[in-house]
Amino acid sequence: MLLLSAVWGLNMVAVKVTSAGIPPVLQAGLRSLVAAMVVALLGRLLGMPFGHWRRDGTLPMGLLAGAIFALEFIFLYVGIGLTTASRAVIFLYGAPFWVALGTHCLVPGDRLTRAKAVGLSVAFGGLLLAFADGLRRPAGPDALLGDLFCLVGGALWAATTVLVKTSSLRRAPAALVLQYQLVVSVPLLLLASPLLGEAWVLHPTPLVVSAFLYQAVGIAGASYLAWFWLVSRHSASRLAAFSVLTPVFGVLAGALLLGERLGPGFLLAVLLVAFGLWLVNRPQR
Fold first, then answer.
1. What Cα–Cα distance (Å) separates residue 202 from each residue in 19, 94, 166, 207?
2. What is the pLDDT of residue 162?
3. What are the b/e assignments for 180-196, b being 16+ CB within 10 Å?
4. Are 3 and 10 spatial neighbours (Cβ–Cβ below 8 Å)?
5. Which of 21, 8, 6 is nearest to 207 (CA)?
6. At what angle do helices 245-257 and 266-281 cross, to 10 degrees?
7. Residue 87 pLDDT more than 90?
8. Which of 106, 148, 186, 188 is an S-S bond match for 70, by CB 3.0 to 4.6 Å?
9. Are 73 and 153 in contact (CB under 8 A)?
10. Which pLDDT belongs to residue 88?
């Protein structure tokens, strides 16, 4: 999960770079299209089964997961365009709280204990501290609507995770769970792009293409495959707590690759996030 969080953190930089040449929602649709082909290839090369989706009863839940996956990115990308990046990150990464609440109610054995609740709160406090400078900047007239869209995006991300843990998808191979979401989201995202007013004008510079391939192959393909493999075997709330590290790694990537400035409280923010994750994941007596 630490490795995945670092990979996803760099993805924030990749999205920013790719958006210079490919409109955001169109970018998400094309990413799902390429990633679906990558997952099919990886499944064959690594001998990962896809199961028998015609006979195992997972198709209805798979279609639902794909629709939620597409809606998540529509809300997220539209929301980012209306608010600041710092505010978008805070509302998106409220997702671990939604996962913890959902699994507490629906997944036996994955209860929201006092230690988990305190750990999640401490980790989220560290996240707020990491982005304190950005939160104080002017956000624009549509910021509240953008904040709401990012909050919905985080809730939809959590809903996908909880759905996998509580439906027939929990018995399906990770490759099939991911492929449902990628294949179903392609037409939905490509249809949503022009409906949201995006012009399909591309500027495929080498940097834009490289950043897009990082998203499609490394993120939506390989890393999401690893994520759903983990979700099928471990506590969803404990795994989701690690996602708070993703924007922290994103800040580091922005500082190293884009020359962005680190705030004075960044080290303290990292320590708070780490302490919160320890509280969430420490062995219970």
1. 10, 33, 40, 13
2. 92
3. bbbbbbbebbbebbeee
4. no
5. 21
6. 150
7. no
8. 188
9. yes
10. 76
**Cα(168)–Cα(279) distance, rounded to whole angstroms?**
31
The CA distance from 269 to 271, in Å, is: 5
Closest CA to 250 of 48, 88, 37: 88
Tokens read off for 18: 């790719």
CA distance 29 to 109: 36
Distance (Å, rounded) from C-alpha 27 to C-alpha 146?
19
- Identify which of 270, 264, 254, 278 has the alpha carbon closest to the alpha carbon of residue 86: 254
pLDDT tens per residue, range 109-142 = 778 788 888 888 888 888 778 777 666 666 677 8
Residue-level pLDDT at 277: 81
pTM beyond 0.85, yes or no = no
CA nearest neighbour of 87 among 54, 51, 127: 127
Token pair of 47 as six digits: 């001998």
Contacts of 252 (CB under 8 A, 6+ apart): 9, 262
3-state secondary structure of 264: coil
- Which of helix, strand or coil describes residue 30? helix
